Every structure is written in structure tokens, then in C-alpha cells.
Amino acid sequence: MKAQDMNRDWIATAATLNSALPYLQRYDGAVVVIKLGGHAMGSDEAMESFARDVVLMRQVGVNPVVVHGGGPMINAMLDKLDIQSEFVNGKRVTDKATVEVVEMVLSGLVNKRIVQAINAQGGMAVGLSGKDAHLMVCEQTDSSLGFVGSPSEMNPKILNDLFSHDVIPVIAPLGAGANGETFNVNGDTAAGAIASALKADRLLLLTDVSGVKNAAGDVVTELKAGQIREMTSEGTIAGGMIPKTETALDALHSGVRAVVILDGRAPNAVLLELFTEHGAGSLIRPD
Ligand SMILES: Nc1ncnc2c1ncn2[C@@H]1O[C@H](COP(=O)(O)OP(=O)(O)O)[C@@H](O)[C@H]1O
Ligand SMILES: CC(=O)N[C@@H](CCC(=O)OP(=O)(O)O)C(=O)O
């Protein structure tokens, strides 16, 4: 590269850093919970870019916590094993054989892929599930769904201990029940419960659309809780967006400062959201 090109690159970087400075200060010491959905994981390049963003967040003093899904990866393994699976209201009906596959895929394959990607970028990630250190104790959601759990008691101390050692926790959405059962928890629900327990500054829900869309199909960049309720009752918010916006409302109610729904596949999605004026996706605040 020629010297003048290097200078131009450096000037562009310095200008970007300068405009990001107030945001860097705003987020120093902040807790940011990031839910990475199975659809947002996509290619190896997308995973690498996500991991780089998370490591950079840690380097500028943010405490990131990654909570992941992996629905499409569970489906692929169930298919290979010839186990049928169905969803009721966005939750997978989970019998004994299915919960074993869910744990194997989420805590094994998916969790370790994310841990490895973050560590390859120079971070120090540790993989956990809600079972570790009693982080997320669960009870059965509804007997017709089998081993699907709802968080009933959260013990986030382990996460604070990890922050103080510069560790980035990566959490698979499974929890143990009082009788030693393993429960499968929807990834959005788990991320919301963890963000609530930590009273996080931000909960970022990374998905495969650029935000919450209005009836005309345009992304709404800022929403109040009341608007979400309205858009849901008129049917504008539907399908997979319902558990996300419900999680957002619950989290705001429990003391999370703001929730953002954004496209996890977009380059530098997380950094753009946190460290630029315009942000990315839909920012949801309390009324
Ligand atoms: N108002 C809306 N705005 C944006 N997406 C919506 C809306 N209503 C329903 N959706 C659907 O919700 C989907 C996101 O949910 P889902 O597929 O469950 O995501 P993930 O797998 O990332 O958890 C979008 O791809 C879109 O099809
Ligand atoms: C109870 C329930 O439905 N659990 C989910 C857990 C994974 C998940 O939530 O993955 P995504 O975020 O990629 O959708 C499941 O079994 O698919």
C-alpha cells in the first residue's frame, strides 16, 4: 500500500473513532446481552464478523454476554436421526429423545462454534448453559410441550465473576428443573431472562430482518412499548416476531434499559448499533 493511501485509511479510522468516542464513553462498563439466533449465524464470514465485534466491545470496556439459539441446527440433527419435530406457538414440542438432541446440538456444536470464533479473534470466551452454576433454573412451561422450560429463578453471580476476569460468557438456552430434568428454553426467552437478571443496559436481539416493520413494510427505528402492543393486536407484528417483542416488553418491565431488534447478518451490526448516532434496527424503550 502507498504511504498516501495508508494516511487516508488512518484519517478515516481516526474520524470514525472520534465520532464514536461519546458512545464508547457511554458504554464503558455497560452490560450488553446479545441474542444470536440460528438464522442470524449464517456463514463462517458472518460468524467471524460477529465474533470480531464482540471482542472489540470487550476491548472498549463493555461486558458482552452472548446467548444463542440454533433452531435450524437442531432441525438438521433431528432430520438425520429421523426424529419428527413440531412447533406450537413458536416453541418446539420436546420429548425425552428430542431434549437430548437439543442439548447435544446447542451446548455442544453451536456453543463451541461461537466460543471458538470469539477466541480466534483474540477474546476469551467461556461456554455455559443455564445449567451451569444454577444460572437459569426452570419449571415446565406447559405439560403439552414436554421438556420446554420457563426460567423460574436466575442466579447471575457467575456472569459478574466472569466479567471481572475479562471473560465473555456464551450461553446455550437450556436449564435444569428442580427434579433434575433438562429443559429446552426458547433462545429469545433465555436472553430476556438473563438480561433482566443482570439489569442489562442493552438487550440486542439479532435476527434475519432489519427490524420491526410497520404495515407498509418499513422498519420503525424507535418504538415505545405501547406501539408494540398496538402493532401486535392489529396483526402487523406476527409469527417469529411475537416472541421477540414479548421478550422485549418483559425485559423493559424488569429493568433492562432498552432492547434493539436488528439484522445479525449485516456487517458490523452490533458495533453500528452501539457506537453510531443512528444505530441499527428497531430500538424499543419503555412508555
Ligand atoms: N412486523 C414485523 N417486522 C419484522 N418481521 C416480522 C414482523 N412480523 C413477523 N415477522 C417475521 O419474524 C421473523 C423473525 O422471527 P424468527 O424467524 O423466529 O427469527 P430468529 O430465527 O432469528 O429467532 C422475520 O423473518 C419475519 O418473517
Ligand atoms: C423451546 C424451543 O423452541 N427452543 C428452541 C431453542 C433454540 C432456539 O431458540 O433457536 P433460534 O433462536 O435459532 O430460533 C428450539 O428447540 O428450537
TrEMBL record:
Residues 31-262 form the Aspartate/glutamate/uridylate kinase domain. One of its GO terms (molecular function) is acetylglutamate kinase activity. InterPro entries: AceGlu_kinase-like_sf, AcgluKinase_fam, ArgB, Asp/Glu/Uridylate_kinase, Glu/AcGlu_kinase, NAGK-C. The keyword Amino-acid biosynthesis applies. The record marks K35, K244 as: Transition state stabilizer. Its EC number is 2.7.2.8. Substrate binds at G70, G71, R92, N184. It catalyses: N-acetyl-L-glutamate + ATP = N-acetyl-L-glutamyl 5-phosphate + ADP. Pathway: Amino-acid biosynthesis; L-arginine biosynthesis; N(2)-acetyl-L-ornithine from L-glutamate: step 2/4. Keywords: Amino-acid biosynthesis, Arginine biosynthesis, ATP-binding, Cytoplasm, Kinase, Nucleotide-binding, Transferase. It holds the Pfam family AA_kinase. Its main location: cytoplasm. It is found in: Cytoplasm. HAMAP family: ArgB. Catalyzes the ATP-dependent phosphorylation of N-acetyl-L-glutamate. PANTHER family: N-ACETYLGLUTAMATE SYNTHASE (PTHR23342), N-ACETYLGLUTAMATE SYNTHASE, MITOCHONDRIAL (PTHR23342:SF0). Belongs to the acetylglutamate kinase family. ArgB subfamily. This is Acetylglutamate kinase. It comes from Ruegeria haliotis. The lineage of its organism: Bacteria, Pseudomonadati, Pseudomonadota, Alphaproteobacteria, Rhodobacterales.
